[in-house]
Amino acid sequence: MKKSKKWIIGIIVLLVIVGIGWLSFGHKSESQNEKVVKVGLMSGSKADDEIWNSVAKTAKDKYHIKLQFVHFTDYTQPNAALTQHSVDINAFQHYAFLNDWNKKHHTDIKSIGNTVISPIRLYSNKYKNVKQIPNGSQIVIPNDATNESRSLIVLKDAGLLKLKDTKNGLLTVGDIKDNPKKLDIKEVDASQTPRLLNDSAAAVVNTNYALTAHLSSKKSIFVEPTNKQSKPWINLIATNKDDENKKEYKDVVKAYQTNKTADLIKKNYGDLELPAWNRKFN
């Protein structure tokens, strides 16, 4: 074998060894520097997945954080998983839900950043505006504590009810002060509200259930205003109190609160969901 060929073969072998070494050690070192954060989410739509996949890319590219998503099907699961340290942070609830959860379960889960607000709407298959609703009509609202309270405020803002001034926290139908149209307020599971539209004058429907039921926003006859009363309904990213100052968790919030995320929310949801981190609630 000629000397020149031996040199060429030697160089190739050396390059192969260097390449293997970089793949084995360089990539491993890069991977070791990457922090993993487990995020608890409700099983959502393709739109939700697109938004969170974008956040994951930003977290990885800008903050060297790898997001691992853990999906749940029941609203009682993400906070329980958080207190059991099965996830590091979660993003599925608003402040009213969180405060109620902490009170009932004696936990200390904290918000570390706002995400979106989803104004709920009063829908009707029969009427074009609130004033057309006849006396004695049935109005359907969700029966869980936070959404019942929220729905009653919506009916009040729509001019259908007057509510007592109460400092007891969440409102119930017992806090109705004046019901001039003698409306029959029917409380049902939130998931059932869209199905009862044909049997009632109107129904307050949460955004997620309106989307699931393919309920057109054209059927909406009143939209919850976004003002200082809306603050309890702002959605958030949460973690346990002991972890609320962890840099990597705060960096995930930064990865979420971007113009890119806001654009994706607008693209996928229009005005059904609104970015809450850059909005004033006066």
From TrEMBL:
Name a single GO cellular component.
membrane
Task: Report whether Membrane shows up as a keyword of the record.
Answer: yes
For this protein, the record's Pfam families field holds: Lipoprotein_9
Give its localization. Membrane
| Gene3D superfamilies assigned | Periplasmic binding protein-like II
Q: Which UniProt keywords apply?
A: Lipoprotein, Membrane, Palmitate, Signal, Transmembrane, Transmembrane helix
**Record carries keyword Transferase:** no
Topological type in the membrane: Lipid-anchor
| Regions crossing the membrane | 7-25
Q: Which family does it belong to?
A: Belongs to the nlpA lipoprotein family.
What is the protein name stated in its UniProt record? Lipoprotein
Give the source species.
Fructilactobacillus lindneri DSM 20690 = JCM 11027
